[in-house]
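In response to a reviewer's request, we include the raw inputs and outputs for one of the modeled complexes. The two entities were modeled together in a single run.
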Amino acid sequence: MNKVVANAAEAIKDIQDGMVIMLGGFGLCGIPEKCIDALVKQGTKDLTCISNNAGVDDFGIGLMLKSKQVKKMISSYVGENAEFERQLLSGELEVELLPQGTLATRCMAAGYGMPAIFTPAGVGTEVAEGKEIRNFNGKDYLLEYAFDADFAIVKAWKGDTHGNLIFKDTARNFNPMMAMAGKITIAEVEELVPAGQLDPNQIHTPGIYVHRIFKGTEYEKRIEQRTLRSYANVG
Amino acid sequence: MQMLDKFGIAKRIAQELVDGYYVNLGIGIPTLVANYVPEGVEVILQSENGLLGIGPFPTEEQVDADLINAGKQTVTTTAGSSFFDSAMSFGMIRAGKVDLTVLGAMEVADNGDIANWKIPGKMVKGMGGAMDLVAAAKNIIVAMQHTDRSGNSKLLSSCSLPITGLQCVSKIVTNMGVFEITPEGFLCTEYAPGVNIEDIKAATAGRLTISADVKEMQLG
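The model returned the following structure tokens for the whole complex.
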């Protein structure tokens, strides 16, 4: 059992043009910074990226957009990125917007071996167009399929050599369910320890879901909205 | 005419908080509600990126990039808080565990339809968690200005903008008053200090009834 790879470049080396990849994170919080950098260096193109957001112009998935590696984004909220907007309006980039809970639950379904889920989110809206509707107990629900991703790339706080993962605070977000959903799952962690050193009671993602793991260094962890107590709005 | 400012709207909505409530506050005016929780009332704020128990904004020393709210602002946690993943976060929303949701809106129809995510012809940013919240929450209060910048009513007979959710809003608090959604349309139960009923009628496009018990809003 050895899931440890040397670095991000080795972890992502067989991600190929045209693949579907999931990237964990909410905004810039809990994103796999190191693998994104490595994908930009590797130059893999025509990627379909499933990720709640699309980064900002010079950080996160925004870096992959800048180098025109993304063919399609599947996200719930994408507004923070001027290059994204330019590519969308010029038709270079395809975007599928989904309710955030639908996005999370479609990942979850994949990780739980379920082909689809029913959700009330989006009923009566343009999200429902072309989707099957079923009525349960008098309420309408949309049928949404499990995602099918070639790779899932997640960021955790701590991991061990068996791929067990622990996340920190709200940097957990989409990471656990994406970790469960990838055909191949890559985890980058801030702290990597030998198997046996993490308390099994505290594991968020069991190692069975994780195929490759490495320790990232020099995390930037950029903050989108640094809001301090003194700036709080009180009338 | 004097109308409420955004802080007044937030103060009025805070009166809806009940001890023990789990509450989801949207971005903008809804976030301000947290500043006016009444004395003796303990509520737990949910952030859909995976936190129950949102605390105040951090001091410089407390700032942690791994700890943010759904508006991507740095936050802290309260005693008894918990973290969870995005699937569980929307699971608790879908399952009706969240007692009160406060959202902003561009338009609300008199049957409770809400539009708050997209303006055709403008850059579409996405719905984020709004569609999940409005589809499942059992008690949704909308916080918004009564009219848009050009003076057009945002309380309509039907939404003109793309829908976020159908027949889901229970109450609206605007800078002019408080309006419940009823089978007869908007029911005005309170007017803001300095606003008269004729002003409200003129600024409301959907079906409007004035409650027999209508009273002036008390902001304390």
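As requested, we also summarize the result in words. Chain B has a mean pLDDT of 95. Chain B touches chain A through 59 residues (CB under 8 Å).
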